[in-house]
């Protein structure tokens, strides 16, 4: 390795080619982040040079490795790192040359031109004219702009980031020179600054040095590379074959992973990566049958290739096949209309639960090693897993640990006969009795739905998916017992109340006067139950939505195509009240058990009593242990009547007020309110906020659950509230989460 300090003049003057390998990522520098700051640095350098002719500006480093070339050919180097910087310098120099030619500065232009064009006598082919030859993605755009005659209109050239960079630098140089009192002297100063006083550190590797190790070490500079970028560089640096064979392997097996769909940034929890990185993470966990965080993806991939018997020429087509299937499932699941494959339907439904954890299992099932698993068994596996996921979402079982459980399931299945995989999935899930793995039984699911304010309890996207599934079940999907009509449109319907939330205007009552208040409260609560909800495929106007039952029935008879709504209006055409809601809640809950059945006779876990922690609870002690709350962190009471009241969080999660420890936030809040000065229901998670950040305990808990892929908001009423307080908290939080679509 030979590091040296060089100017652009020294880097580019001698006839040579700096070739960017095809497997490196495309040109990504932009005006705001790189071009403008570079030009500002050059402008500042010209000012310094007027006071100090030795002034310089450091641009960074680049790494190249000598390539073997045939006798009589120009020297060539492979660009290991710094291709963005080198390419930008070529664009800058060429735009400077073009502006000097336009102004008639022939001698100055002649000093710049040799830094962008190799002499004709050294060229063996048309591309040899270029000092830098970028990755294949950018070659057409680079060749077009660098070959254009000075003065060529940019609009006549093919659009590319490189054309935009040339246009930016050309405009900046022109404006800078136009503003000068002496443009000729300024042009001379600018040429000196750009060609001689910019500095780069060049690291030139011998052919036998480890270029990949250098590349990884320097990756922290500039625009960060994703795990997929690092893996790509590792693969093609290590790939055995000629340049032509490497390019063929790249084009056939990897180029697709750099198209817009794959490089789209996707967020899961609080982590964002390109979709290609998420795919490779899922794929590698399916291959290794091990769980590891995505931040370790690149190191795990290197170890998998280096320690195994996985030749890259065989591995690449396998990655390509898996990627094609992965995309087919996801794109299909995002299609709003028409029937789907069973895998796509599974992906759509489980995707509404934010459960990406199952992707490795889908990939594993689709691998060549499992090709003999029948489609019937695969469909059954999807049904079993879908039931497991949906039932756990309905009862709000915890999702933390699901990554590990899915990997453990794959390990278990890898040891089973392929004709018994579906049975093995059912047995494995049914036998799990842990909070993070158990399969809720019929009794627990019914209990979770009966009398519950489903409209406020579940995120709207999940509630809509459940209603869609009930509707599709009536239509014969996805089990291919289809009626004449197709499946309901996915993701576009709205969840509508049959009895509207603004029922008082058009729903007269004849309650006894002394029961009006309690009856109204009961109705306000019950109208959010599952039995009072349906899907509408077109927006109801507010007049019909809030109208009488007779008006709604008339509207639905004319415009409705949803069977679960038709069932209601046909069976109860003249009235709709609390008794009907209760009956329909039970009917829909039983239908849910049919859509997502558990094994016959299955018993889940004993349902804990109401005064103990449920599987989905997150307490203060857990947040302290996870490092989200510092022991001793000061709290202040949020209600204005308690201004100045403070508390502190203990190491064990208890809340200390005036030296007295309370087991829960609500208990601490009630102690503060012993005199009854505050008349509202005390939800301790909302009652206390952190003095430093102003965030409530509720906020911190929601952030933690979001990081685990769980929903947040109005579904967690508190740690030990009374039933009335829970309902109040649920309705309050639901107003914050309401997505609209219902009046």
In which range does the helix fraction lie? 40-55%
Q: Report mean pLDDT, rounded to a whole number.
A: 85
Q: How many domain regions?
A: 4
Number of helices: 32
Radius of gyration, whole Å: 33 Å
Tell me the distance between the termini: 70 Å
Coarse shape: elongated
- Low-pLDDT windows of residues: 607-616, 709-743
Could you give the count of β-strands?
Answer: 15
Main beta-sheet strand count, sense and barrel state = 6 strands, mixed
From the helix content, strand content and strand pairing, which structural class follows?
alpha+beta
What spatial order of strands do you see in the largest sheet? 1-6-3-4-2-5
What percent strand?
Answer: 5-15%
């Amino acid at each position: 390795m030979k590091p040296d300090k060089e100017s652009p003049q020294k880097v580019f003057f001698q006839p040579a080619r700096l070739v960017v390998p095809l497997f490196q990522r495309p040109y990504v520098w932009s005006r705001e982040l790189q071009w403008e700051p570079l030009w500002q640095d050059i402008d500042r350098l010209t000012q310094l040079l007027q006071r100090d002719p030795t002034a310089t500006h450091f641009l960074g480093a680049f790494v190249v490795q000598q390539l073997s070339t045939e006798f009589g050919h120009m020297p060539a180097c492979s660009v290991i790192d710094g291709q963005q910087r080198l390419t930008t310098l070529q664009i800058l120099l060429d735009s400077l040359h073009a502006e000097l030619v336009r102004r008639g500065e022939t001698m100055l232009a002649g000093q710049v031109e040799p830094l962008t064009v190799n002499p004709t006598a050294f060229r063996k082919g048309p591309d040899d004219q270029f000092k830098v030859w970028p990755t294949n993605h950018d070659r057409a755009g680079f060749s077009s702009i660098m070959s254009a005659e000075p003065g060529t209109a940019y609009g006549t050239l093919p659009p590319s980031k490189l054309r935009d960079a040339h246009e930016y630098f050309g405009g900046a140089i022109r404006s800078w020179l136009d503003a000068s009192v002496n443009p000729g002297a300024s042009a001379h100063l600018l040429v000196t600054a750009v060609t001689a006083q910019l500095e780069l550190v060049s690291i030139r590797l011998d052919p036998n040095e480890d270029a990949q190790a250098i590349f990884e070490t320097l990756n922290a500079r500039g625009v960060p590379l994703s795990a997929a970028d690092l893996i790509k560089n590792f693969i093609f640096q290590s790939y055995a074959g000629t340049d032509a064979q490497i390019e063929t392997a790249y084009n056939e097996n990897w180029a697709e992973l750099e198209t817009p769909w794959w490089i789209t940034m996707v967020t899961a929890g609080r982590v964002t990566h390109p979709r290609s990185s998420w795919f490779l993470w899922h794929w590698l966990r399916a291959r290794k049958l091990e769980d590891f965080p995505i931040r370790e993806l690149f190191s795990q991939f290197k170890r998998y290739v280096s320690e195994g018997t996985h030749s890259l020429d065989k591995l690449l087509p396998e990655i390509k096949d898996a990627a094609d299937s992965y995309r087919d499932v996801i794109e299909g699941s995002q299609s709003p209309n028409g029937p789907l494959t069973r895998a796509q339907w599974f992906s759509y439904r489980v995707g509404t639960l934010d459960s990406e954890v199952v992707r490795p299992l889908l990939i594993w099932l689709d691998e060549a090693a499992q090709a003999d698993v029948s489609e019937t068994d695969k469909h059954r596996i999807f049904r079993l897993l879908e039931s497991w996921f949906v039932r756990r979402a309905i009862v709000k079982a915890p999702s933390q640990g699901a990554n590990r459980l899915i990997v453990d399931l794959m390990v278990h299945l890898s040891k089973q006969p392929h004709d018994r995989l579906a049975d093995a999935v059912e047995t494995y899930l049914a036998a799990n009795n842990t909070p993070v793995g158990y399969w809720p039984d019929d009794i627990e699911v019914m209990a979770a739905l009966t009398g519950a304010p489903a409209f406020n309890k579940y995120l709207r996207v999940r509630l809509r998916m459940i209603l869609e599934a009930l509707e599709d079940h009536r239509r014969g999907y996805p089990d291919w017992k289809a009626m004449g009509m197709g499946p309901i449109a996915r993701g576009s319907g709205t969840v509508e109340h049959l009895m509207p939330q603004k029922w008082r205007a058009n729903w007269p009552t004849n309650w006894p006067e002394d029961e009006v208040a309690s009856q109204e409260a009961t109705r306000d609560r019950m109208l959010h139950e599952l039995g009072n909800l349906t899907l509408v495929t077109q927006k109801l106007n507010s007049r019909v939505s809030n109208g009488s039952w007779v008006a709604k029935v008339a509207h639905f008879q004319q415009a409705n195509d949803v069977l679960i709504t038709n069932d209601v209006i046909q069976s109860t055409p003249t009235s709709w009240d609390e008794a009907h809601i209760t009956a329909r809640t039970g009917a829909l809950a039983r239908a849910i058990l049919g859509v997502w059945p558990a094994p016959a006779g299955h018993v889940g876990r004993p349902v804990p009593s109401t005064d103990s922690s449920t599987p989905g609870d997150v307490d203060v002690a857990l947040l302290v242990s996870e490092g989200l709350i510092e022991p001793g962190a000061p709290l202040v009471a949020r209600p204005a009547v308690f201004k100045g009241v403070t508390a502190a969080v203990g190491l064990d999660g208890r809340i200390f007020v005036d030296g007295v420890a309370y087991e829960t936030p609500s208990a601490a809040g009630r102690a503060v309110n012993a005199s009854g000065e505050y008349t509202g229901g005390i939800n301790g998670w909302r009652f206390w906020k952190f003095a430093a950040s102003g965030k409530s305990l509720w906020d911190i808990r929601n952030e933690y659950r979001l990081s685990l892929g769980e929903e947040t908001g109005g579904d967690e009423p508190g740690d030990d509230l009374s039933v009335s307080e829970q309902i109040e908290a649920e309705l309050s939080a639901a107003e914050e989460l309401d997505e609209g679509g219902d009046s």
